[in-house]
Amino acid sequence: MIEVQDIYYTYQNGFEALKGVSLKIQKGQFIAVMGQNGAGKTTLVKHFNGLLKPTKGTVLVDGVDTRKVSIATLARKVGFVFQNPDRQLFCETVEDEIAFALKNFGYSDENIKKRVDWALNILDLVQYRKVSPFMLSGGERKRVALASVLAWDPEIIVLDEPTIGQDSQQKERLRQFIVQLNRQEKAVIIVTHDIEFVAEIKPRIVLMAQGKIIAEGEASEILTNAELANQSSLVVPEIAQIFKSLRDLGFDGNITDVYEGGKAILEKFGENR
Amino acid sequence: MSMFDGFKFRNVSSPIHRIDPRAKFFYVCALFVAAVLFSQIIPLLILLLIQMPLVIIAGIEKEWVRSLKGSATFAVLIFLMNLFSLYLYGSYGSLAQILERSLAMTTRFIVLIESFSIFFLTTSPDLLGLALEQSGIPYELCFAFTTAVRFVPVISEEAQTITDAQKARGLELEGGNFMNRVRKYIPILIPLIVNAIRRSLELAEAMESRAWGASKKRTNLYILKMGAKDYSMITIALVILAISAYVWMFIQIPTLVQIFNL
C-alpha cells in the first residue's frame, strides 16, 4: 500500500532528516516507528500523506507517486492524527469538528451525520456532541482529534505519539482501539517513544536513528535487543529485562509483556504446585 | 514569511554584531534622514554602496540578499507607482527623466531596507531590550517587546504545524475566490490565536512563580557601555549626516539624464 523507495529529506534550514529510507507497508499491517528525538520518525510519516515530498527518492501510495497528487487526495486514504490536538481543533462543537474533514471531502449531509454519529460512538464522545472542544480535558481533546480523522474511515491510519499525556486507563482504551482498527484490515502506523505501550501490543517495529532505519522486525526480537535499544536511546521493557536475566533458569529471552511472562512462569513452576 | 527572514537575527559574532545597539540605531536614523533628504539617484546610490562594507564585515551577505529578495515585490510596486503617477501627473519632460526618478525612489526604499536589515540582523533581541531599558523605557514594555520578537519563530513554526494538520484533514488552501480563500484560513487562525493566548497565560504564570516584578528596582547581569567602536559608529553616522546636509544645501546635484545628455 505504501512503498517508500530510498528517500532523502532535507529541511529548509539544511538539516538532513532522512538519509536513504526504504520501507514497505502492507494492508492490515501494524507498525510502530520508534527511535530517539530527531531520528526522523515524524519526518518519515509525514511523507505518507504527502505533507512532505522527498528531496530524493519516491513514495508511492497505492502505486501513485505522492508528488503527483494533492495532500487532500492522499488524505482520504491516509488519515494522519497529529501529536497535539490543540494544533487542529477550532470548531464551536465537537460535532462540527468531526464533520470538518467530511465537508472538505464533499460527503453528503446525510452521510456526514451518519459518520459523525459513528465516530462519536466509537470514541465514547456522544455526551460531548454539543460541547466546545476547548472545554474538554487533554485526553478528551485527543480523542476528538482522533475521531475527526477516523470519521472518514481511511485505509491507513498514522498516529503521531498517541500515548503522550494519556493516563493508563486511556492508554488501555487506546490499545484496544488500535487492535480493533487493525482487525478491520486497516494499516495502523504509530510513532512513539512509549516502549511499554509497544511491548504490550506487539506491532512490527521500525527502529530509526539519525535519519536511517537501523532495524526492522517483530517486537519480541527488537525490543529485547539491548544493543539496538542503546543505539536508539530506548530502554528495554522491564519485563524483558527480568526474563533476560532469568535466562539461566531456562526462560525464553524474548518475553516482552506481563501476560506472556506470567504464562512462562506458570509453565515452568506450575507443575510443582 | 520570506521578507521577515531577512530581518531575523542569527547569533554570530562580528565587529558589527558587537557594536552597542544604541549606536547602531543612531546610524539607522542618520541613514534614514539622509535617504529622505535626496530624491536624485546619484546620492541614493552612494548611500546604498557605502553600506556594503558593513554588510560584508558583519558576514550577513546571504541574509541581506534574502531581505532584498523578500522586499522585491514592494520595490517593484514602488517603481511602478512612481512611474505611473509621474507619467500622468508629473511635470517631468522625457521618459528617461521619469524612469530615473522612479528608479531613485526605488533605490531610496532599498537603502532604508538595507539599513534596517543591517540593524536587525546584527542586533540580538536581548541586547535590544537591554538598550531600550537603559534608555529609560519601563522594563515591562521592554520585556513585552523582546518576548514578542523572540516568539515570532515559534509562532511561525506552529502555524506550519497547524496548516499541516488541517491539510491532513482535507483542507485545500489553493483556489476559490477571495472571500472563500479568507474563510479557508479560519481553521488555521483559530488554533493559532487560542494557542498564543494559552501560551502567554502559561508564560505569565511561570514568570510570576519566578518572582516577576517582586522588586521595583531591577538590576542587570549585563550593562551596556559605549566604547571606542560604538563612538566611531556614531561618528561615521554623523559624518554621513553632515556631508549629506552640506551637499543638499549647497550643491546642485546633476541627474543622470543631464550628465549623459539623454
CATH superfamily of the largest domain in chain A: P-loop containing nucleotide triphosphate hydrolases
Major sheet strand order of chain A: 6-7-8-3-9-10
- Per CATH, what is the topology of the largest domain in chain A? Rossmann fold
Give the number of DSSP strands of chain A. 10
Helix content of chain A: 25-40%
> What integer is the average pLDDT of chain A?
90
CATH architecture of the largest domain in chain A: 3-Layer(aba) Sandwich
Task: Give unreliable regions of chain A as ranges.
Answer: none
Structural classification of chain A: alpha/beta
Tell me the number of structural domains of chain A.
Answer: 2
Reading off the top of the CATH hierarchy, the class of the largest domain in chain A is best stated as Alpha Beta
What is the ordering of alpha helices and beta strands of chain B?
HHHHHHHHHHHHH
Catalogue the unreliable spans of chain B.
none
Give the CA-based shape of chain B: flat
**N to C succession of SSEs of chain A:** EEEHEEHEHHHEHEHEEHHHH
Biggest beta sheet attributes of chain B: none
Q: Strand count, sense and closure of the main sheet of chain A?
A: 6 strands, mixed
- Largest interface here, residues on each chain? A-B, 25 and 19 residues
Mean model confidence by pLDDT of chain B? 86
Number of domains of chain B: 2
